[in-house]
Amino acid sequence: MDKTEFPIQQRSATVHHERTFLSKVDNSVQYYSIAPALGTGPKALVLSVHGASVEARNQSRAYKQKDWVTIVAATNRRPFGFNWEDWGRIDALEVLEEAKKVFQTIPEQTYLTGHSMGGHGTWFLGTTYPGKFVAIAPCASYPDISTYGFDKGDEMHDMFKAYEPIKRSANSGRVKSLVQNLKQDGVYILHGDADSTVPISQVREMRQILGTFHPNFCYYEYPGGEHWYGDHSVDWFPIFEFFKRQTIPANKNVKEIDFYTATPAVSSTDYWIKLQQQIRPFDFSNINAKIDKGAITVKTKNASILELDLPSLEINKEITINIDDQILRIASDKKAILALKDEKWTLINEINTAKKYAERQGGFKFAFDNNVVFVYATGGSALEKEWYQNRARFDAETFYYRGNGSIDVISDKEFSLEKYKDRNVIIYGNASNNSAWKLLLKNSPIQIDNQQVKIDNRTLKGNDLATYFVVPRSDSKTAMVGVVSGTSEKGMKATWANNYISGITGFPDVMIFKTDLLLNGLPDMKVTGFFDNNWSAKTLEFF
């Protein structure tokens, strides 16, 4: 047995240091870095999100320790990571909850800031989770990644009808479409007026947008400031003075909510309102609610199931709810779940977890979390066996080097429902060659073998078809099954092309395409779109 010795650095918990936790995405060990508050007793909490190529440990050390607030820096899973979207978003939320628990911070004093890519992360996380932070401070920031670069982006693909669901599935990252959420939070914008990395036009536009509706924001252009002009690029005294003046109100004191979201899979809750289900998946939803003399008036857009946390409002009487001009009277001692059916709102007793709801929606990329396991096919030809195993290993290694991940990769022969209970599963292969298919996908609305793809009562034939799709795992209330599959060798090889382990890319519930997509682009997309709320395939688009 070989032996080696190496030193381990020991640090006091009272100075800058790092801590680790287990991520729920893949059960991997992740770290975050801390600039702990000076002194004892409950303190406020600032979540700081770093820029591209910056380590969390360096981010936290840009801040001097303060007597009233603990500053924690998340990793985004890597120095570049996922632009604070997708798995970077999850990392930030996991660090936030872990830090609250470890440091016992003051819940109503939780703030958010970040620099460069982390400035985008601040805009994105702040608009996406308005109830989690009472104030945000984007530094050297850009709001939307889609408008930060200089390529044609969406414009290049908008001419193709098949692109609409793909474009829609990326809506959760479109900050400017969700910016109204910030009206309940304080905003401090800091930017160097000589920044050549992120043009100052990015935040001047945001200043103009906020100026049309926002009652509580500050804006400062640092004279002569490049992209980084010293630690005060983030550790800016006026930001922390601004933060000090803001506190998150208790639910009972929130009399008006104006909540926007692109999908409850990413963002479902704002104070005492939770969107459980949309009419049109990944299209923008808006819930406007007001309390006046114990009555609640609600106006909805693109909402089919809402949940109201009435006990937290401490209204000790029957509550009248006027929702979209329909009157309901509801007891205030338990949460109210309202469902839209035949254009009428009714009170229901519980969420049907067999249908889409906040904890289990599409699109396809959401299959790659919840302690996910990759299951590759061992049936079929020698080429199929080798290719699907290599595809699973390639995806796992991609997630490692992009997202510091540690994903279990097993064969279909090793998989069992009980051993991998309540975990998300990615199936590599089809019904002809992956024996786990019959355990997980026998009732799936999409069935694929080496000759064809069946979608309900429609059939696409050919040996050159590939698909990505996601469906609920039938033996679990929360887990999902993602599928990377093709008909025969041509189809399976076509699945390599799309980069789903990447931040900001949009993937709907279903994509079925021909091998020639690699050559011709979207004209060879055959099916794309979203399952219905009961996970049927009636509204999928065929081309």
Please report the total strand number as a whole number.
Answer: 29
What does the overall shape look like? globular
Strand content: 25-35%
Portion of residues in helices? 10-25%
Strand order of the main beta sheet, please? Answer: 1-2-4-3-5-6-7-8
- Per DSSP, the total helix count is 12
Radius of gyration over alpha carbons? 24 Å
Provide a concise account of the structure shown.
By secondary structure, the chain is of the alpha/beta class. The chain has twelve helices and 29 strands. Helix 1 (56-61) links the parallel strand 3 and strand 4.
Describe it for me?
It contains twelve helices and 29 strands. It is an alpha/beta fold. The chain has an eight-stranded mixed sheet, sandwiched between helices. Strands 20-19-21-26-25-27-28-29 form an eight-stranded mixed sheet. The mean pLDDT is 95. It starts with 16 loop residues before the first strand and ends with a strand. Helix 9 runs parallel beside helix 11 (488-494).
